[in-house]
């Protein structure tokens, strides 16, 4: 009986799919999973029937993912990665020294990573598992010890704000010196009140309004700006390390206060471990 895709497929089907996609053959997947090749083939057929889609097609002697398979495999791999991280985090003998941080992707790349060496320098024993995410309203993960979210107000959900944020245009030093600033493309991500319309209405620059190139995350916008492609909007927390590294500069004076800001889990003392306590204290120190 073919079931609805709304129902979770059995994990052994998904394991066969992931291994076959990664290794490029049912035989290799069978060897890794310690089952027969026919069992792998049968589980793939059952998964395809369950999903009403073919996941592989033959290209000569090789197996290749169909378009549906390509779209599905990243979700399956991320799910298995999350299970592995969760298993290590919850059942680690040194649980007090390990923690899982679920953190806004832009915050992770532009604030946390440039400073992370200092955390390990101060606390070399700490083991930090990081789960970055794009959308802050994604389903929360139960095994996460600390979360960093970006939004207008998460205080009622057990988070505390880190700092007030201001936003402003940024670009690469090369773009500013090239004389192309007035004609350069503008980049942004949707869903933020800190947008180009608000900047233009602030009167802080005479930069002409242009069509916006949108992406799902400010990470893409800031990466485009740091590579000299065009102008993007940054805010205080994301700009500091990029400015220090010489990747981004502010071509105009002035800044506009944001409604959005970063929030972090407000853990009660009895819920803290040595690792979470050190991480929270370190973030406060850095800010």
Task: Please characterize this protein's 3D structure.
By secondary structure, this protein is an alpha/beta fold. The protein folds into three domains: 75 residues, Arc Repressor Mutant, subunit A (Orthogonal Bundle), CATH 1.10.10.10; 98 residues, Periplasmic binding protein-like II (D-Maltodextrin-Binding Protein, domain 2); 94 residues, D-Maltodextrin-Binding Protein, domain 2 (3-Layer(aba) Sandwich), CATH 3.40.190. 43% of the residues lie in helices and 19% in strands. It is built from ten helices and twelve strands. The strands form three sheets. A five-stranded mixed sheet has the order 4-3-5-12-6. Strands 9-8-10-7-11 form a five-stranded mixed sheet. The radius of gyration is 23 Å and the shape is globular. The mean pLDDT is 88.
What is this structure, in a nutshell?
The protein has 287 residues and is α/β, with parallel strands linked by helices. It has ten helices and twelve strands. A hairpin with a 2-residue loop joins strand 1 and strand 2 (62-65).
